[in-house]
Amino acid sequence: MNNPLIIALDFSEKQQVVDFLKPFKDEKLFLKVGMELFYAEGPAIVQFIKEAGHEIFLDLKLHDIPNTVKGGMKSLARLGVDMVNVHAAGGREMMESALEGLDCGIKAGVKRPYCIAVTQLTSTSENQMQCEQLIPVSLQESVLHYAELTKQAGLDGVVCSAQEAGLIRSHFGKGFLTVSPGIRPGGNGIGDQKRVATPQFAREQGVSAIVVGRPITQAEHPLESYLSIKQEWEGVLL
Ligand SMILES: O=c1ccn([C@@H]2O[C@H](COP(=O)(O)O)[C@@H](O)[C@H]2O)c(=O)[nH]1
Q: Where are the catalytic residues (predicted)?
C-alpha cells in the first residue's frame, strides 16, 4: 500500500458522489464507502466507483458471530473492493472467520482485499472507554491489545488514531497497516472525533493511510482542500 489519502464519501445518495467527483476528473483516488452510502445505494455504488477507476475501502465494520461475519465477507469479496474491515472487539475467532469468508468469496486470480480491524473508534475518549465499556486500562493499552489480537488472527492491520500509530508500528513493524481517521488539518473542526491529528503528525508517526471525510467533502472547494491535505500528508514543502 502506497500511503494513500482515503476520502470518506459520507453521502446519502449517488448523485452527491457524482457531483463531488466532478472536479476530481484528473485524479485517481482512494475512496471510502461507508454505511450511509452503501445502505442507500447497495453494491451498484461500488461498481460505479470502480468503473470510474478509483480504489475502494468498503468501511462496513463487521461485528457479529464468526459464522455470520464469514458469510458477510464472502458476499463482500465478490464486489472486488480493495479494503474491508471488522471490529477487533468481535474477537480473534471472528476475525479469522472474516479472512476465511474473503478467501471463499474472491474470484480466481483476484487479490484478496486488505482486511483490517477497528481498535477503538477515533470518536472514543479514554474516559468514555473506561466508564462506558468498563475497560480498566489506558486507551493506548486497549488499542495495542486489539492490534495484537488482530495480528494473531492474520489480518493486515488496524484502524487506529494517528496518536497510537507510532506505538503500533514499533510493536508490529511497518508491514502491519495503520489506517487513521480523525484527521484534522490545523486541528480545526473536530466535531464528534476525540482523537485527532494533523496530516503532518500522521506522517511523522508512520501511519500507512489517512482517512479524511468532512475536511474535504464539506469544504467550500473540495479539490483544493484535498490537494492541500495531500501535500501536507506527503511532506511536500509548500
Ligand atoms: O475509528 C474510526 C473508524 C472509522 N471512521 C470513519 O472515518 C471517517 C472520518 O470522517 P471525518 O469526517 O473526517 O471525521 C468517517 O467515515 C468515519 O465513519 C472514523 O472516523 N473513526
A: 61
